[in-house]
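Q: Two folds, back to back.
A: First:
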Amino acid sequence: MGSVFSPYYAWSGWRDPADHCAVNVALYRLDGGGGRWAMTERGRGQVHRDATALSVGPSALSWEGDTLVARIDEIAAPIPSRLRGVIRLTPQIATDELIALDSARRHLWRPFAPRARVSVDFTDPDLHWVGDGYHDGNAGDEPLERGFAQWSWARAHLSRDVALYYDAERRDGTRHGLALRVSHAGDVSSFAPPPLVDLPRTGWGVERRTWRDGEATPRVRKTLEDTPFYARTALSGSCDGETAVIMHESLSLDRLRSPIVRAMLPFRMPRIVW
């Protein structure tokens, strides 16, 4: 809703968030197989929502009991191919935490379900999977690029809890470092963030920094998404001495607001106007 990466929303002067909505689906495989990506933007005439459901074009999300169900029917980009299936997410831990990422509280983050059980059943491609999941959300009263120059985020599912990390460089030159643990009972506690270390830059030259546990520096297991301004990476590392697969994101808002990058985005993010 008001898609943060939408070039069309930016070109409109950020006037109407309901006219710039998309369901973003990204499928990856850690075993080296291919993935698919869809993020087709649609206008307000193709968006419908109420207290328990949201539909954007042919795709829809709804709460069915205590399970969030996403029914996906999209065309992948930039190489067109069908992306169709159902994702079910049942929270195992739910939190009411609402965390401000800036001093003016223009940018808020909420980890709705830090630990969840997820099932994925796709017909196109033929993909079926059950495992650990995660659900969070961001909301803002201004474009993300106005508040931040760049940020890093990571999470790790551990046997005792879930570890969550944020490091954001604000436009005013200050930094916001955050590290949280969420227990199986849903208790949220903060701790001092471990030191940051540099990872290899992506193919597009995006900087990646992550948190080092003890003397061991996490290593890149697979770069899942490599764009001019954003990278999603699976890391192999440890948290509190426990070996873990760490999901990591790097975002350069300076890159995102570049006119050249904005002009490239429609190849990955087409817009349906009818």
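A: Second:
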Amino acid sequence: MSDLEKNLAELIDKESIRELALLYCRGVDRKDGDLLRTLYTEEATDTHGDTFDGGAAAYVDFLEKAFPYMTYSGHHICNHLIAVNGDTAEGEIYALAYHILPDGKGGQIEDFMCVRYLDKYQRCTDGRWRFAQRVVNYDVRQQQPTQVTLPENSDPGVGFFSERLFAKGPRQ
């Protein structure tokens, strides 16, 4: 394989891994557990600061229980460094995460975080990249009461996009 072919293959791998990270954000923000389940290897672990530490399947179960209480969730990736080494890779993502959650007293709180996702990725036998290990560090976290109101309308993306990439549900 020539240097050009190696470089091109690495770029393709990195773009596939970037899409994996973006699909994770979409899965959480659109409350799509079926999608999230397809983004991890079977043995994957996920450590989300002080909120969860365990297997990825249990993490998705944990999220699905929280989805009905999440008034809003928005994950925004800022920087994503990736090092590919054959069928494994490592990555560090700087991201902003903003949630509106119940405060337990009848009101709501804004939960804003500057996070770093420390990831290990694995190319699976089907050729797709998946998370093998994810550790989330909250570099900054701020919670405060909010009076934010959100529109009552449904997601404008539903019915707008025709490509499978934007559909709800698992990825093959």
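Q: And?
A: The chain has a mean pLDDT of 94.
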